[in-house]
Amino acid sequence: VQLQASGGGLVQAGGSLRLSCAASRSIRSIDSLAWYRQAPGNERELVATITTTGNAYYADSAKGRFTISSDSAKNTVYLQMNSLKPEDTAVYYCKATLLFRSYWGQGTLVTVSS
Predict the structure, then answer these.
(1) 41 Cβ neighbours under 8 A, 6+ residues apart
(2) Looking at the chain, which terminus has fewer C-beta neighbours within 10 angstroms, N or C?
(3) Nearest CA to 49 among 37, 110, 111?
(4) What is the pLDDT of residue 52?
(5) What is the pLDDT of residue 6?
(6) Can you tell me whether residue 102 is helix, strand or coil?
(7) Rounded to an integer, what distance in angstroms lies between the CA atom of residue 26 and that of residue 7?
(8) Angle 82-23-95 (CA atoms, 0-180°, nearest 5)?
C-alpha cells in the first residue's frame, strides 16, 4: 500500500487545516487508517484512527478539535483539524494497517503560529 499525504502548511493559532492521505488501493480492503504526528524531539504519537466499519478513535489531545473521516470512492482518509494550537505543530503521517502490516505515508508538515 502506498500512501500520499498532503494538506499541511502554516496556519495561525485558532485556524483550521484539512489533511488528506490518498491510498494506492481500495481502502475498503484496509483494516484501519490512522494519522500520527511527530514534533521535533518527540516520539511519533497517534492522533486518530478509523476502521473499515467507520469506528473512530482519538487521542485526548485531538478530541473535540480533530475529525478523521474516509472516502472510499476516492480511497482517501482525511483529518480535519480545527482550533489549532502551536503545540499541534508537527509532521503528520498517515498509516494503513493491512493484515498486521503497517504502511506509512511520507508526512506533511503542519506549523501553527501563535
Answers:
(1) none
(2) C
(3) 37
(4) 85
(5) 97
(6) strand
(7) 21
(8) 60
Record the cell numbers describing residue 92, joined without a space.
Answer: 503528520
Report how far Cα 20 is from the mean position of its chain's Cα atoms: 7
Closest C-alpha to 96, from 33, 6, 28, 35: 33
How is residue 61 annotated by DSSP?
A: T
The one-letter amino acid code at 27 reads I
> What's the whole-number mean pLDDT along residues 89-112?
96
C-alpha neighbours within 13 Å on the C-beta side of residue 85: 7
DSSP state of 24: S
Neighbouring CB atoms inside 10 A of 5's CB total 23
At 5, list the grid cell. 499525504
Distance from chain centroid for Cα 66: 9
Per-residue pLDDT of 62-83, as tens digits, reads 999 999 999 999 999 999 999 9
Phi and psi at residue 10, to the nearest 5° = -100, 130
